[in-house]
Amino acid sequence: MDIYIEIMVLALGLIMGSFVNCLVWRLHQDESLLGRSYCPSCRKMIAWYDNIPLLSFIFLGGRCRHCRRPISWQYPLVEMATALLFWLLLKRHWDNPQIFIVLLRDWLVALAAVAIFVYDSRWQLVPMMLVWPIGGLTLILGFALGIPWWQVMAGGLAGAAFFAVIYGATRGRGLGTGDIWLGLWLGFLFPAWPLFFAWLTISFLIGGLVGAALLILGRKSWKSRVALGPFLVLGALIVLIWGPQITGWFFNLP
């Protein structure tokens, strides 16, 4: 792979990570995406040279130029995570003859997953205004990749049904309706049963480990509610990147 392509993809990932930070905040504040960026603390508009992904955070010492209040570490971490995901997905699909379509789908999925991870982690709520459109795009691009329509639909319905059953059994205490919609979207993404099973297994395994750690550290009690959405999208990203290796090891499948 050409090193210049890799550098360009990493730069694109940083830029799109900056967009994700903006998207998450604007969705929470119910604001338009068209306005200029501003400091959440002092509300002063941010100049373009203070809005360069990652570099501005470093040059400003992690503080707003105007009010000198700390800038959340969420911003550089999201930018770096998005750049890394873009690069890993490029490596994953480099030899795929349908690289343009599959990269478009997976990069869009990665952007939505990072945004949902941050949003649900911070506010314990799945942003449906993001889940619905990305679910539709995942469905359409799945068809464009030649996946049989019935298989894509079956994956989505299986994902939604799985979480709907848990929702009904726990009377809404185990998860929220947003998780059912996440199940539908990510089911569209993993219509093949080995990938579908691997996604659920990894998601609940990570969720269980994190929940246990929070209990041991005293950060949560047995009655506390932990958002499931971040673990579902994290598990999805892991399978999206390393799915063949995971299923090959776990199921002894190619």
| Span of the ends, CA to CA | 24 Å
Number of domains: 2
Mean pLDDT reading: 92
Order of helices and strands: HHHHHHHHH
Looking at the structure, what is the overall shape? globular
Q: Main sheet? A: none
State which percent range the strand residues make up: under 5%
Let me know the number of strands.
0
Number of helical elements = 9
Helix content class: 55-70%
Find the structural class using helix and strand composition. Answer: mainly alpha
In short:
The chain has 254 residues and is mainly α. Helix content is 69%, strand content 0%. It starts with a helix and ends with a helix.
Which features does this protein show?
2 domains, 9 helices, 254 residues, globular, mainly alpha
Written account of the structure:
By secondary structure, the protein is mainly α. It folds into two domains: 1-95, no CATH class; 124-254, no CATH class. It is built from nine helices and no strands. It has helices at residues 3-29, 55-59, 74-93, 99-123, 128-144, 149-169, 177-189, 193-216, 229-250. α1 crosses α3, α4 (99-123) crosses α9 and α8 (193-216) packs across α9. The longest helix has 27 residues, at 3-29. The two termini are 24 Å apart. The mean pLDDT is 92.
Topology readout:
Layout: H1 3-29, H2 55-59, H3 74-93, H4 99-123, H5 128-144, H6 149-169, H7 177-189, H8 193-216, H9 229-250
Helix pairs in contact: 1-3, 1-4, 3-4, 3-9, 4-5, 4-9, 5-7, 6-7, 7-9, 8-9
